[in-house]
Amino acid sequence: MVNDETLEKLERLSMLEIADRASAKAHLEEILGFIDNLKNLECKEVYSDDNLHTPLRDDIPHNSNISNPILSNAPKSDGHFFIVPKIIE
User: Fold this and answer.
1) What b-and-e string marks burial along 35-49, b requiring 16 or more CB atoms within 10 Å of the CB?
2) Where are the alpha helices (DSSP H) in the chain?
3) How crowded is residue 6: how many other Cβ atoms within 10 Å of its Cβ?
4) Residue 33: its pLDDT value, please?
5) Which residues contact 80 (CB under 8 A, 6 or more apart)?
6) Which of 13, 51, 70, 80 has the fewest CB neighbours in a 10 Å radius?
7) Cα–Cα distance, 18 to 8 (Å, whole number)
8) How far lies 14's CA from each of 9, 27, 73, 78, 80, in Å?
9) Can you state the angle between helices 4-14 and 21-39, rounded to 10 degrees?
10) pLDDT grade, residue 48 (50/70/90)?
11) Residue 25 has pLDDT above 90, yes or no
12) Helices then strands (H, E): number in the chain?
């Protein structure tokens, strides 16, 4: 059951103010109802193959030297670095 205490905690955690508390409670109750329905689903016959996995490639280091082509697209660069406008004072 969603109560005022739960809503206040959600407001604090989300740093948002819930304007329509009654509507929020109803929506949260509905969501929790859906979750309860999921808990009751029978999933024993769901197909699962533990042999399926994403194949990995060998991690072989090599000198790609791609910094020059990448930096050539930058409006401003200095050596191997991008020059960007200062955004924090």
Assistant:
1) eeeeeeeeeeeeeee
2) 4-14, 21-39, 67-71
3) 13
4) 93
5) 67, 71
6) 51
7) 9
8) 9, 16, 40, 41, 40
9) 90
10) low
11) yes
12) 3, 2
pTM score, two decimals?
Answer: 0.47
Structure tokens at 55: 């194949």
Confidence grade of residue 27 (pLDDT, cut at 50, 70, 90): very high
- Per-residue pLDDT tens for 53-73? 788 888 888 888 888 889 999
Q: Give the tokens for residue 20.
A: 């329509």
d(CA 5, CA 18): 13
Please enumerate in sequence order all residues whose Cβ is within 8 A of that of 7, keeping only pairs 6 or more positions apart, or say none: 18, 21, 24, 25
Q: Determine contact, residues 80/67, Cβ cutoff 8 Å.
A: yes
Tokens of 74: 């930058």
**Assigned token pair, 30:** 């509905």
Residues composing the chain: 89
